[in-house]
Known about the structure:
three-stranded antiparallel sheet; 4 helices; 113 residues; Arc Repressor Mutant, subunit A; alpha+beta
Amino acid sequence: MNLENTQVQMRKGILEYCILHIISRGEVYASDLLEELTAAKMIVVEGTLYPLLTRLKNAGLLEYKWVESKSGPPRKYYKLTLEGQEFLEKLTETWEELIHSTEMITAKSKASS
């Protein structure tokens, strides 16, 4: 079993949640999103991020607007739709349940060692 592959899969499993959570704070430019995810060691590359943003937009969870830039081409800023906000709330409930379940399981294994 490859540890690195398992770690990557764990990160991928929560990537969508993290992206929605970051965007929920307000409009965000994709490169700022990428920077925050990278700083948090989510190991994201543009080739992963942009298709995911497109998929979330096509699902009606995100929308974007173009903003003129003084130093180059216009920038695309993302924000959550109402549907995206509701979706994130449900994901947050699931995330909290997963944390609780995982802590219950790992605490038992530590106690029985």
